[in-house]
Design a protein that fits this description.
The complex is a heterodimer of chains A (147) and B (135). Chain A is built from 3 helices and 5 strands; from the N terminus they run βαααββββ. With 147 residues, chain A is an alpha+beta fold. Chain A has a 5-stranded antiparallel beta sheet with strand order 1-3-4-5-2, covered by helices on one side. In chain A, β3 and β4 form a beta hairpin. Chain B has 135 residues and is an alpha+beta fold. Chain B is 24% helix and 36% strand. A 5-stranded antiparallel beta sheet of chain B has the order 1-3-4-5-2. The chains are: A alpha+beta (147), B alpha+beta (135). β2 of chain A pairs antiparallel with β2 of chain B, so a sheet runs across the interface.
Chain lengths: 147, 135
């Protein structure tokens, strides 16, 4: 079905708090194969000017993609989940994500269009701390391939 | 590290095996079976198990952070997932080659790096761009 342009600008309620742990950052860093000590060693991170270990640049997706998927649960969107693929991803880091961060995600539909039978939906996820400090803007373009 | 328009980043070659995909699935929480189950991947029309697009994006980002020497210097990063990286069920896995070039010097001591990411000679990411803060 064609996506309704009226969806553009729609925002969803804030997510539950995601608390970033040192072990999760170390696990993610190992999975993407980076051995930079700022991801594992608090002293190395502090020496580099960070209050605690920092996450690799794409770690934000651990929180943001699930937040972007709230749009798929919106009955007005009506995308067929089984046909959805990840089309594009963008991160704008306002500061690195670090251990101890208590992150909240707010998702907004930035664009919705249908091209050649495929539904293209762009979801922007603003990750902030619980106190409202901007951390990362993660934008995902989801594609539901036409039947 | 010097950054002028046209400066090329050192080429990086990564190998991606099924074990890497399982590890990334666990770390990222993305357990879509097309990234570990051959049967499901073929049922949805793929040639086989494919790498998570976000894993490919993470590896390509390593070519940038290896060049800057500081993961926090990568302030903006975007990709379009063009073609899937098919990962065979063997010890060698798939090969991913990442090249990068400084495309523009921006305000505030930042530079835009354009990436070319290929597997088996085919581009797998398009519009892959990073903005880095220069030291």
């Amino acid at each position: 079905m064609a996506l309704d342009r009226e969806l553009v600008g729609r925002s969803y309620p804030p997510s539950a708090v995601y608390e970033v742990g040192r072990a999760k950052i170390a696990e993610f860093a190992a999975a993407v194969g980076t051995d930079d000590p700022v991801h594992r060693d608090v002293e190395a991170a502090r020496a580099a000017g960070h209050p605690d270990v920092i996450a690799p640049p794409t770690f934000a997706v651990v929180v943001s993609l699930e937040a972007a998927f709230v749009v798929l649960g919106d009955p007005d969107v009506g995308l067929d989940y089984s046909r959805v693929v990840h089309g594009e991803q963008k991160f704008v880091h306002h500061r690195p994500i670090r251990a101890g961060d208590r992150l909240v995600a707010v998702t907004t539909i930035d664009a919705a269009r249908t091209v050649a039978g495929n539904d293209l939906l762009t979801a922007r996820v603003e990750l902030t701390t619980e106190d409202g400090e901007a951390v990362c803007t993660a934008t995902s373009m989801l594609v539901a391939r036409g039947a | 590290m010097t950054a002028e328009v046209g400066t090329e980043l050192p080429e990086q070659v990564f190998r991606v095996t099924r074990a890497d995909l399982v590890r990334y699935a666990g770390a990222s929480g993305d357990f879509n079976p097309i990234h570990w189950n051959e049967r499901v991947a073929r049922e949805v029309g793929l040639p086989g198990v494919i790498a998570h697009g976000m894993f490919t994006m993470a590896l390509a980002g390593r070519a940038v952070t290896a060049w800057t020497g500081d993961p926090a210097a990568l302030v903006e990063y975007q990709v379009r997932f063009g073609r899937p990286v098919v990962v065979p069920d063997d010890d060698a896995g798939a090969e991913l080659t990442v090249r990068g070039k400084v495309a523009a010097l921006l305000d505030d001591g930042r530079a835009r790096v354009d990436l070319t990411v290929t597997s088996e000679g085919e581009k797998v990411l398009s519009l892959a761009r990073a903005v880095v803060r220069l030291p």
